[in-house]
Amino acid sequence: MAFQPSPTDVSVIITTPSTATGSEPRFLTERRVTPTWTVLQLKSKLETMTGIPTSSQHLLLKAPGRADQWVDGDDGIIGNWGLMKGCEIEVHDTRPQAARPNFNDLSSVEKYVLPSATYESLPNSVLAWKKNQKLGRFDPKALSPKESMQKQAEKDSEDVRVRGIAVSRRAIILPSSPPHVRRGTIRYVGPVPTIPFSGVDVTSQETSNSGPQPIWVGIELDEPTGKNDGSIGGRHYFTCPNNTGVFVKPEKVEVGDFPPLDLFDDMDDEMEEI
């Protein structure tokens, strides 16, 4: 029997049609195709790439210098259709649009959530490492969330006293260095329950009655470089124009003789540089 050389694979571009006229194909890749494959064999391999079932595929062969032609007959040999290097096989989906799965819609995908009991039983998790190292809430010396909040409240009160923070006083926000100095007038000093504190429901009645709460300093800035109008979480603590209000911790406030910004300050600086 004469020796029959094995057919040489042909490099072919695989695409799917675009969704809009003139736009790029939705899928594009380059694969090697053996000319002796049947059309059905080729379709079965294309299914793994495009997600289109073999029974719903209609192949359009595009070859350089030749008219486009539809490939019919699953039992036919794909090489007989004039397969050559540089060809493109466009895979069309014959299913109605409503019958095609939408892989871009993640809302219909059921997401796996690891049960808390299962996670806590894992020996190689971050939680297990924290337990072994006695970190965070596993530290026997760690303060409870309420204790941490009370300690923060004590520190804030001391900062307010030492720094001379009071309503109507002028202040700058630290860190500040020219030309990025944010200055303004203190409009509020006290608790802000609508700003959460880690592990504690600051808005609850029980927390309000349990002792002092962390202190915040509300400042009306001279320039609109703030974040609010004196309100946060839907509650007003002071009133000022939009984007001129800001809440900061007492440790970030420096009280002093900081006059309001003059609109002509920048002009004077420019004249000195001439």
From TrEMBL:
Keyword entries, A-Z: Chaperone, Cytoplasm
Major place of residence: cytoplasm
Span list, region Disordered: 138-157
Keyword flag Cytoplasm: yes
Biological process terms in GO annotation: cytoplasmic microtubule organization
Cellular component GO terms, alphabetical: cell cortex; microtubule plus-end; nucleus
Localization of this protein: Cytoplasm
Domain CAP-Gly positions: 215-249
Gene Ontology MF annotations: microtubule plus-end binding
Composition bias, Basic and acidic residues: 148-157
InterPro entries registered for this protein in UniProt: CAP-Gly_dom_sf, CAP-Gly_domain, Ubiquitin-like_dom, Ubiquitin-like_domsf
Family, per entry: Belongs to the TBCB family.
UniProt protein name: CAP-Gly domain-containing protein
Natural source organism: Aspergillus viridinutans
